Amino acid sequence: MKILSLADLDVLSHAGRLGLYPGQVKISVGMATCGLAAGADAVYEAMQKRIEQRGINALLTKTGCIGYCQQEPLVDVRLPGAGRVIYTQMTRPRARALVDDLARGDLPVDNAWAVIDQEENLVEGQVSRFARLPELAPAPALDQQPFFTSQRKIVLRNCGYIDPQRIEEYIARGGYRALHKVLTGYEPQQIIDEVLRAGLRGRGGGGFPTGRKWQVARNAPGEPKYLLCNGDEGDPGAYMDRTVLESDPHSVLEGMIIGAYAIGAHQGYIYVRDEYPLAVERMTNAIRQAREYRLLGEDILGSGFDLYIEIVRGAGAFVCGEETAMIASIEGGSGEPRPKPPYPAEAGLWGKPTVINNVKTWASLPVILARGAGWYRSLGAPENAGTVVFSLVGQIANTGLVEVPLGMTLRQLLEGVGGGSADGKAIKAVQTGGPSGGCLPARLFDTPITYEAMKATGSIMGSGGMVVLDESACMVDVARYFLDFTAQESCGKCTACREGTHHLLVILNRLTHGQGAPEDLALLEEVAGAVKIGSLCGLGQTAPNPVLSTLSYFRDEYVAHAVDHRCPVGKCAMTAPISAVGAVEV
Amino acid sequence: MLPAQKYRQPDPGAVLAALHEISARCGYLPEAELRRSAVELGVPLSLMLSAASFYATFSFKPCGQHKLQVCEGTACYVKGAAALLEYLSAELGVQPDQSTEDLMFMLKRVRCVGSCGLAPVVRMDDETFGRVTQPDLEGLLARYRQSPPGAA
Fold first, then answer.
1. Which residues in chain A are closer than 8 Å to B74, comparing Cβ atoms?
2. What is the DSSP letter of A461?
3. pLDDT, tens digit, 9 for 90 and up, residues B82-105
């Protein structure tokens, strides 16, 4: 079928609604990678068998990740016309018992974690309310659960709500309407103007205004132009992009098609890291479906506009998340970065104007175009419009994937959404921005989450990894962990990065093995400064941040290691011979 | 010409895809395959080799049949991944990124599989396990040693 009009979209939307809200019992199992890691596939199989044995009329489906990873596997049950009940920490026995209950016509309430009484179709600005079954009165509504109360889902709007393998369900929640709106009613320049007015900034962490990047690419001489989606989420401790690619792939595709029309590109690539096989599978399926409906490919929606999108799989190189390295990787060689300028928007893939945006940036765009710049700006903080997605992990009570308005303070995020520390120990710091970021001490937790305020602390917003560290963490060892990472992932092109990160690691290894000296602190600062100014790309320029931020906020811990040869929290061995850690003498 | 091709470059970009294909088919990158592929793609062998050696995914030597990956992402690190890696290294008698002599297992460190909410995480081939403990690993190894999946 070829979609040409809103009426055609309505037909698919209707089909999608039959899947989302069927006239029979619907059971959904959260089956993104995190759900699977917790055993969701075993739960799914157990339910499938039991449903057959019991012969009940139930639709069993797979959905993505709603973000509450702490309690995976999650199973939702929806009775016809009613709200959705969420059950947490499902096991095979509990899954079978749940089917047995349903077969008897019961809906168990004692272990119902929350009920979704209303669902928002964000793109069309509609809220559907569902009846609450009387027996479920004691269960809290989803937005009464502290984990969800302050969240505002834009990027994650469909994650955990739809079956990511069915384009119809994406369309039923307003999908591809923004695309139809802009292809039938907007000149490309109008789209860029709208994105500029909305104030959307790059969600990969850089925070560069998306509209400005597009404008440069649109105006730059050179044809053809290219479009890239950066799904090479390399920061350890971060899985925002994986979740979106796995749980709502069409939101990324729709954003890319809109962007391609705005800048005049006809070929796009989605670069996905090799560690995300399920994301590749789901995205491949989404591209195939979009092609079948002519939402992608030749003559999209009958507008005469063509766009082809292909997936490129990375191969385990962190540096490829840097845009010029990614371009080199797609061009076929080693993923080594090159100097900027020229920026990719002027001369990128094969020397042509190329726009690179992060997965979350692309996924935000359909909603922004559908609801308008004013609506988007009304969320968030001045110069920091909209929402930001974090993977909130480490020593925190509620681990998971969260999306909050920009401008919220770290404290509100950690204590409100995250529920405080995991096991009663005080939270000591949060690490943001992965190996490019830093550690913020608890006394700075009233910092608002904005690009500027985070940068002023010596860390960065980053792409969304937020690892919570409690009293048991040694900050010198945390710095060592990140330098071990960057020393190995440095591509080796720039001497300052290749040798400097290694040198920093050697010093940190000395400190954590009781062989440090007082002058090591000054040496760390000196080498860090050299790596920062002597490196071409973001990897090297930011690699010293974990050292510098911990040195500035937790200097006493460094002094204890260097002068007293003591690890204050008792984490570091302090005794192992230096040869055992693979370090060389400096 | 397919319609898609009018917007594409003749494609040295296929190098990475070719490396993936060989690696998936052979389990590693045999030299003969690299030579054949270089001719096919019309690129110098040196380009294939430099790309292959740049990326952590590829190996020039045969690897263990089952890839056991210990995630070393930040959340896993905070939650004790190092001890899991140490246990597996001792149990299998290999260092990380090496394969057992019988080529049954390959032990790998992986940067982050992105299941940080369930740290620590271990992946056996395509299967991901969360909140892993040492007894879990004992069970997993025992299961694979007794009846390796894929063996008749």
1. 236-237, 393-394, 431, 434, 465, 467, 481
2. -
3. 999 999 999 999 999 899 999 999
Distance from C-alpha of A433 to C-alpha of A242, rounded to nearest angstrom: 16
CATH class of A19-146: alpha beta
Pairing verdict, β B98-99 and B127-129 = unpaired
Q: Where are the domains of chain A?
A: 19-146, 176-375, 380-470, 477-581
Domain A380-470 sits in CATH at: 3.10.20.600
ipTM: 0.89
Summarised one tens digit per residue, pLDDT across range A206-260 is 899 999 999 999 999 999 999 999 999 999 999 999 999 999 999 999 999 999 9
Question: Are the CB atoms for B108 and B96 separated by under 8 Å?
Answer: yes
Q: What global pTM score does this model have?
A: 0.94
At residue B68, what is the residue type?
L
Residue appearing with tokens 């302090």? A574
CATH class, range A477-581? mainly alpha
**Region for residue A199 given its phi and psi (left: phi exceeds 0; alpha: psi -120 to 50; beta: otherwise):** left
Query: A290 with A307: CB under 8 angstroms?
Result: no
Q: Collapse the DSSP code of A384 into the 3-class scheme (helix H, G, I; strand E, B; otherwise coil) and give the result.
A: strand
Domains, chain B? 3-54 (no CATH), 66-146 (3.40.30.10)
Determine the Cα–Cα distance for residues A585 and A517; give it in Å rounded to an integer: 14
List CB contacts (< 8 A) between B54 and chain A. Answer: 317, 333-336, 491
